[in-house]
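> forwarded from #structure-qc
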């Protein structure tokens, strides 16, 4: 059990599940309703993306174990706590990434190539440069975080700059700034202790909240503009509109009461909203197809 727990912590299983869900949303949106469905494709997508993401996160912790050891929130991770040695994490990360990329290659060059690009951006550029040297490193750092949805989309459609894929990417990309910076405010002392120049450490909490607001309103705005990117039906009005209003109201509470318990509701509602924004166009697409086929 201890080994399984250490593996889960090293590979950040919870975050991987989120990435897998977004990839499946991209796959479902790009799936052509007149094409034959191969159940092996989503299975390979899930397995390949899980292995690549697990390898990327394991590599990240192997790269940053000394930094993790300086922060209270991360010092109990498997490597700084001594449960796993850095070289073991490097080896495990390499094996996971190789098998993951090989699995995605079975779906085509595009999914595997985009996954390799994601690894380069996350482990090569973000971890080594953006995160450590730039106050706004989370902004370009959100690109690899938004790539799973593009990887899933590319399985059925290589036109990754099509409106549908751009919408999905923007939702995932813009969501990450309110998500991460609210966490950075909550654990500001930890980041300061670790010497990581995150936004709240460099510019203060009030300015960080201002930037959270800018990205949050842009994020909600993109979701509200979904009909300009893809077909939107009943669920858009039933879910996207009220969820968007709720997120904005929670941010208002958080902005004026950020030192108290308003942080957690805003954080949770923001995370819930991204699931809704990804799920609604998928369900709308397949519901409308089912109704049309039935008629």
């Amino acid at each position: 059990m201890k080994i399984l727990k250490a593996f889960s912590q090293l590979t950040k299983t919870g975050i991987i599940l989120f990435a897998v869900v977004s990839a499946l949303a991209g796959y479902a949106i790009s799936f052509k309703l007149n094409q034959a469905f191969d159940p092996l494709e989503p299975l390979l997508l899930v397995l390949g993306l899980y292995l690549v993401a697990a390898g990327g996160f394991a590599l990240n912790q192997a790269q940053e174990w000394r930094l993790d050891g300086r922060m209270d929130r991360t010092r109990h991770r498997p490597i700084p706590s001594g449960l796993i040695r850095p070289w073991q994490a490097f080896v495990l990360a390499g094996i996971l990434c190789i098998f993951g990329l090989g699995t995605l290659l079975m779906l085509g060059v595009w999914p595997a190539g985009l996954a390799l690009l994601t690894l380069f951006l996350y482990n090569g550029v973000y971890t080594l440069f953006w995160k450590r040297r730039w106050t706004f490193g989370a902004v370009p750092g959100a690109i690899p975080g938004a790539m799973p949805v593009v990887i899933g989309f590319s399985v059925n459609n290589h036109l990754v700059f099509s409106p549908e894929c751009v919408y999905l990417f923007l939702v995932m990309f813009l969501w990450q700034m309110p998500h991460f910076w609210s966490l950075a405010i909550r654990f500001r002392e930890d980041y300061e202790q670790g010497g990581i120049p995150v936004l709240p450490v460099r510019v203060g909490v009030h300015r960080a909240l201002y930037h959270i607001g800018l990205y949050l309103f842009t994020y909600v705005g993109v979701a509200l503009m979904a009909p300009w990117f893809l077909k939107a039906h009943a669920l858009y009005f039933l879910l996207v509109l009220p969820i968007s209003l709720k997120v904005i109201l929670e941010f208002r509470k958080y902005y004026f009461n950020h030192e108290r318990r308003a942080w957690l509701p805003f954080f949770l509602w923001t995370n819930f909203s991204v699931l809704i924004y990804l799920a609604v166009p998928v369900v709308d697409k397949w519901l409308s197809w089912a109704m049309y086929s039935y008629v």
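QC bot note: Residues 16 and 132 are 23 Å apart (CA to CA). The chain has a mean pLDDT of 90.
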